[in-house]
Please model this.
Amino acid sequence: MKTLNVGMIGYKFMGKTHSNAWRQVDKFFPVSAQPVLHTICGRDKKGVTAAAKQFGWNHVETDWRNVVANPEIDVLDINTANDTHAEIAIAAAKAGKHVLCEKPLAMNVREAATMLAAVKKARVVHMVCHNYRRIPAIAQARKMIEAGDLGRIFHYRARYLQDWIVDPEFPLVWRLQSKIAGSGAHGDINAHIIDLGRYLVGEFSEVCGRLETFVKERPLPGSKSKKGRVTVDDAVITLGKFRNGALACLEASRVAPGRKNHIQIEINGSKGSLIFDFEDMNRLKFFSRADGADRQGYRDILVTEGVHPYVGAWWPPGHIIGYEHTFVHTVFDFIQAVVKGRSVQPTFEDGLKNQQVLEAVEKSSKQRRWIKL
Ligand code: SOE
Model:
């Protein structure tokens, strides 16, 4: 197996989770095939140098263009703010690099389409980091749905709630500025449960939604007295219909006190139901109507057996894994795709489809009506 040199742009929160993943993924490969942490890039020399030391990157850059131009680098991992994804990914594709990009893929549908065209033209491997797909319990849920264990799907119910901006004094960071982030809770976390809906149930055919900004002004970063306008949503609700007829009900918020990173999913079908709760992410609850009437009830599947997706590479049964492993699985699948020359989902095409749903919900919110996809 060829050894790949990895370049990474961005070193803050997502950069940390990805750096950690690139380090830990060696567990999946023989020493000779382990990816090399070649270069990490960030605008602040001091910060990025410290990150390189901490995570074991060999080189440091402060201009992403130098990483893209470096012929030694095979794959690029983009963890920057949303408004730079397109420019970097397109340049990387043109330079023949395989690209893994954080979500949301782009600022809007037009940008996502341009990115998809660029990676297709360059024939490079492209993947969006919707890491929650790679929770073993979620991958197991998909296996069970595909196997028909739930029968015909009627409902996809998903909530993604956080509370980190509930304090009105929380500053106007980039994630709260539409010019940089595109949207708020919508693109940041609703995008994840939209992706999981597409992964587990299928394509959306229609949506209706409402975005809301409760805190309209916030202190500018570094200033107590000056305030700026919040230009993204704090929360969003979405109703939807899938092409296969199932109904969707989604809720995403960053102002839900007590909810730190709460993701709950319930899927109901003609034969049974599945429930997933991220705070108990090694478990899947399954109700089967095929069970005898005298013993019906939700059963707990502890998704830690060697037969479950991804779990074999980790610990013995019952030894649970966590959030960081979802990124390890993501970079593992990405590397496998690069080495084997095949594609890996979610591709930029999935990123584009996600963006189409996001945009349709925004349109629906503005126009107060259902929007067809
Ligand atoms: C911030 O809201 C954030 O880091 C998201 O950007 C991630 O995608 C999510 O996993 C956790 O929260």
Q: What stands out?
A: The chain has two domains: 2-132, 135-321+352-367. The chain has a mean pLDDT of 97.
